[in-house]
Design a protein that fits this description.
Layout: H1 2-6, H2 8-38, H3 43-71, H4 73-97, H5 100-126, H6 134-160, H7 168-172, H8 176-209, H9 225-228, H10 232-261, H11 264-270, H12 272-281, H13 290-295, H14 298-318, H15 321-341, H16 344-358, H17 361-370, H18 377-386, H19 390-404, H20 407-432
Helix pairs in contact: 2-3, 2-5, 2-6, 2-8, 2-10, 3-4, 3-5, 3-18, 3-19, 4-5, 4-8, 5-18, 6-14, 6-17, 10-16, 10-17, 10-18, 10-19, 10-20, 11-12, 14-16, 15-16, 15-17, 15-20, 19-20
């Protein structure tokens, strides 16, 4: 009993990190449509924003596990937080000088810090108790990650997407004074939320420097990554994480553009119920850009993930997590087909509901993949976090499909991602019987 009680404080602190990186990840999504207009990018080029962000996971996850092996988990967490804080501060010059490359550097730096945190925190939470409840425990922490992702779209809609972006031609027609005022307003819209985040992140780093974390696992392993490549269940899980993150980020990044192309701002304005929801975020929302009108509804996509994880934490403690994973992945496939086959509010709410079934995928795939690996779990976490690169590769591919074909075609491609997760869930369930 005393052991369980001693885990409460560390569990709460680690869960605060899940909230933080969920919030920042989706705030990045809010910048995608804005940068698309500021730099006049195609959908494919806009997808490269996510490439810079999630590419850090591919490049840095395994090095992060080696860093943790040398400096320990506590110092690794502090290093990750400080790196994230520096990345948030880089948005200040990026917005001031309107240089796309600095934005990409800021994204990459923030993601580098998050990579260190993810490699450390996911297996740590999984091991704060019994192995059979690991999936339930990680789902609960990830529920607070989803709380961050649920709040972030509203913040993004109010602060980042709430004004009109001028084209380069329109900017050229402004007077020097008006142009300078426009640039200052543009910079401030991006700078304010990220400066506030930097202050909060540095505060968390200071808190963690004074906290004593229990030693839950060996921080050194005699195994090599070549040994891990022989673990079939782990490698199937790595590809599952790749598919899940790529599909979730692709939907989240392009929802605003998908809704605008589908004429949703007009439909929302004509519906008293829907306009009431939009105005609950901002009473002056209909005097602003259409991106802000539909942007507030992205909140429901990420809120669904939050609700689903709280539900999933209960379900996976009562039902085999592998079975729950398969059912949730199949539901996501069905909802995407409904969105593509319909129009209007049905199409909108069905794609938003995918978020509910995304909920348990990452923590459940993660815990299934590391099950039974013993001292190799920390290294396995590095491989699994490397697979988060799916968020860098699939969104640009999705954007290219939209550029060449349509949103409908691009969305159908994502059903392949969820179809694989369905396969992994039921295959691992059969193997566990």
């Amino acid at each position: 009993m005393s052991n369980k009680q001693s885990y409460t404080g560390p569990f709460i602190l680690l869960t605060s990190l899940f909230f933080l990186w969920g919030f920042i990840t989706v705030l990045v999504d809010s910048l995608v449509p804005r940068l698309k207009e500021v730099f006049e990018l195609s959908y494919f080029q806009a997808g490269l924003v996510q490439f810079a962000f999630f590419g850090a996971y591919f490049l840095l996850s395994i090095p992060a596990s080696k860093i943790l092996d040398k400096i320990g988990y506590k110092r690794g967490i502090i290093l990750g937080l400080v790196t994230m804080g520096v990345g948030c501060l880089l948005f200040y010059p990026a917005a001031s000088y309107r240089i796309f490359g600095i934005f990409m550097l800021a994204y990459f730096t923030v993601a580098g810090g998050m990579t260190i945190l993810q490699v450390a925190a996911n297996p740590y939470v999984a091991l704060l108790g019994s192995e059979e409840k690991a999936s339930s425990r990680l789902n609960l922490s990830q529920a607070f990650n989803s709380l961050g992702t649920a709040i972030a779209p509203a913040i993004g809609a109010l602060f980042i997407l709430s004004d009109n972006i001028l084209s380069s031609e329109e900017i050229g027609n402004l007077s020097d004074l008006a142009r300078e005022a426009y640039y200052n307003a543009e910079a401030s819209a991006v700078q304010s939320p990220f400066i506030a985040l930097a202050v909060f992140i540095i505060f968390l780093a200071v808190v963690f420097s004074f906290v004593k974390l229990p030693v839950m696992m060996s921080e050194k392993s005699s195994a090599s990554y070549f040994d891990l490549l022989k673990e079939k269940n782990l490698m199937l899980g790595v590809f599952g994480i790749f598919c899940y993150v790529g599909a979730e980020v692709a939907i989240g990044s392009y929802l605003v553009s998908y809704f605008i192309e589908s004429g949703m701002p007009v439909i929302i304005a004509e519906s008293s119920f829907m306009s009431g929801i939009a105005q609950s975020f901002d009473t002056d929302i209909f005097n602003k850009d259409p991106k802000a009108i539909v942007g507030v509804f992205v909140t429901f996509y990420w809120s669904g993930a939050m609700i689903g994880r709280f539900i999933g934490s209960y379900l996976t403690s009562r039902i085999n997590p592998r079975m729950v994973l398969g059912v949730f992945a199949g539901s996501a496939v069905a909802l995407i087909f409904v969105s593509v086959a319909t129009s209007g509010l049905v199409s909108m709410w069905s794609i938003l509901a995918v978020g509910l079934f995304n909920s348990i995928m990452f923590p459940t795939i993660f815990t299934i993949a590391i099950d039974g690996l013993g001292e190799k779990k920390a290294m396995a976490s590095g491989l699994l976090c490397t697979a988060i690169v799916g968020g860098a590769l699939i969104p640009p591919l999705f954007g290219k499909m939209v550029d060449v074909f349509s949103f409908g075609t691009a969305l159908v491609i994502l059903t392949l991602c969820y179809g694989y997760i369905l396969f992994y869930g039921f295959k691992s369930y059969s193997a566990s019987k």
